[in-house]
Specification:
alpha+beta; N5-carboxyaminoimidazole ribonucleotide synthase (chains A, B); Rossmann fold; four-stranded parallel beta sheet; homodimer; purine biosynthesis (chains A, B); Dna Ligase, domain 1; metal ion binding (chains A, B); ATP-binding (chains A, B)
């Protein structure tokens, strides 16, 4: 038995996910360092930040920790490769590379017989026009890599928009055209896989978006009893195939024809923030346990709950804190339109139902997004 | 509404209590700095530590934060006075001064009609001899100030030991002799008072010691339904009388004649660590809310639970983490005999009762103390 048993974990990225990963890691005697463009980031309160815009910062970062992970899914593969000649990275590089390219991701879903909406590879305006004919309209066009939170997307609703879509996105050179799925709702499944191959899965979460950004999540997703084992099966196929270590998220559409995989994120996910208070072991703690080679914690639900994002503007802190059952998480970020500044997890108490809490919170948030219906 | 709403809170002390206070404060956009002898302390991962052994460190510490609190009950009153000419300190100085002297503390309990065991002031061996005669043996002799975790105490069981007791403790010049209370068990009540005077109380905790150090706490204290309102009344008298802000702990003996106050601690307390997972709002978060002038959170119990201290030696981390329902908190400290290195909170899960968890944990801890009965 070592004297203090403190290990250091290096995290690519220094945003709120890194901040919450480090918060969860500390009580296990795991400390963190971060690699981020500019050192004034949400993770700075929890460990040294190495500025990725500076020469030599990558090597200093590599020297700073024993094992590595990421909280930013567009982590540079070149940086990952430099690291991998020296130290271990979890999740594995292949998961990162696959998630960074929508075409590779869809190919993997196909390979593992995980249903997806019809899609086509698009490398020219002619490709796009052909896709519109063969798959019909509307058509969702996305850059193969680099997009997030609704950016890098175009919905072609009539043929005349094909040129416009290509003009807007064609610079990316590689696009994907997806058939429009008349989905009823979006859910996500989050799971963690340990270094010994053990897999644990949290309950399905129902996600609501507003202007392409996650507004709120409900757990467990209503009427999801039949969907849970199917989603669990899909994510387990991915985890095992990739020999994955850490937390993986799979976004799914619930359609009349069943579950369709939308995309995966090789990291902890906004739709799993509720697990800090709502599960026995959170996505953050379990990710760090997996990365450090420790046994996984229970993903059992403590209580049905809801997570609401704080976007663009901070609410009056006092008003949120007065709500018994509202758990506030600010990220220490400056206000900016469309920026995620924090979240609130709502857990029913003896005095407040989830419905009452949700309604009270909607009145408090400066920008309640989809919460107010 | 400010752009980021981050305030800084200065904490006298940088031990595990400071570490857990800062952990709870961060999601509220409250950051912390610390004042500690030597900067290598458990709080160092969460904010700047000012080394109290260095000249000018006090002023630098005072400059570093907006409002101040303490996690160390022997915080220097001289330092507090220097601070108070410039900035606010919560809890108030009077609470700190009173808690640092057992005679002042007893006098306050008397004044507020909070029952205590018979006691006498002792300034000489003759005083002590007289106390032994008038109160009878056994007699518990303590230094009026400076003792903790069973240090600075002597139990006089026969008259011949009076000289020995004086020899051991008399250097302190001011002692207190307390009648031996045939108590059945020790409980503690923890409450928080906001800047607006609101008081909230957690459920009574039953505390078990081993060699003078807290071994484990059980919440709620068994058979405490009748005791809860009485203890709540006592601590509320203290809080209101002292115009207190923050968390206060009151240790009580359960005796055949009712509850007797033992001592108070003007800070978050080891017997309240269970509240991180076991209460809607923990003692740490509520203390920081109070100090920052924010509304208090709910002290409602989420589940009956148990807190077990890790003392002297780290257990095998894997073994603790394998127990579903065991929440591990290490403090990042080096091993030393009798030192608190961490704690584990046990919360029943679907698979594990509290009894099963407690029994499994007793087999894992290298020094199970009183847990194994």
């Amino acid at each position: 038995m070592s004297k203090v048993q403190v290990e250091n974990i290096g995290i690519f990225g220094g945003g709120q996910l890194g901040r919450m990963l480090a918060q969860a890691a500390l009580p296990l005697n795991l400390t963190c360092t971060f690699f981020e463009a500019g050192i004034d980031c949400p993770s700075k309160d929890l460990g040294a930040v190495f500025d990725s815009t500076q020469a030599n910062a990558l090597q200093d970062f590599i020297d700073s920790a024993d094992v590595f992970t990421l909280e930013f899914e567009n982590t540079s593969l070149t940086d990952a490769d430099a690291l991998l000649t020296q130290k271990a990275l979890y999740p594995p590089r292949v998961a990162l590379a696959t998630a960074q390219n929508r075409l590779s991701e869809k190919a993997l879903f196909d390979q593992l017989a995980i249903p997806v909406a019809p899609y086509q590879r698009v490398e020219s305006e002619a490709d796009l026009r052909q896709a519109a004919v063969s798959m019909g309209l509307p058509l969702v066009v996305k850059t193969a890599s680099g997009g997030y939170d609704g950016k890098g997307q175009f919905v072609v609703r009539e043929e005349a928009q094909v040129s416009q879509a290509w003009q807007e996105l064609g610079a990316a050179k590689l696009l994907i055209a997806e058939a429009f799925v008349p989905f009823v709702r979006e859910v996500s499944i989050i799971a963690v896989r340990g270094q010994d191959g053990e897999v644990r899965t949290w309950p399905l979460t129902e996600n609501h978006h507003h202007h392409g950004i996650l507004s709120h999540s409900i757990v467990p997703a209503p009427n999801s009893t039949d969907l849970q084992p199917i989603a669990q099966d899909y994510i387990t196929r991915l985890l095992n195939h990739l020999n994955y270590v850490g937390v993986l998220t799979l976004e799914l559409f619930v359609t009349p024809e069943g579950l369709f995989a939308n995309e995966m994120a090789p990291r902890v996910h906004n739709s799993g923030h509720w697990s800090i208070e709502g599960a026995v072991c959170s996505q953050f703690e379990n990710h760090m346990r997996a990365v450090a080679g420790l046994p996984l914690g229970s993903t059992e639900l403590i209580s049905p709950c809801m997570m609401v994002n704080i976007i663009g503007q901070h609410p009056a802190r006092d008003a949120v804190l007065k709500l018994a059952g509202a758990h506030l998480h600010f990220y220490g970020k400056e206000e900016r339109v469309g920026r995620k500044l924090g979240h609130v997890t709502l857990i029913p108490t003896q005095g407040n139902t989830l419905e009452a809490l949700s309604s009270a919170l909607a009145d408090i948030l400066p920008e309640p997004l989809a919460l107010k219906g």
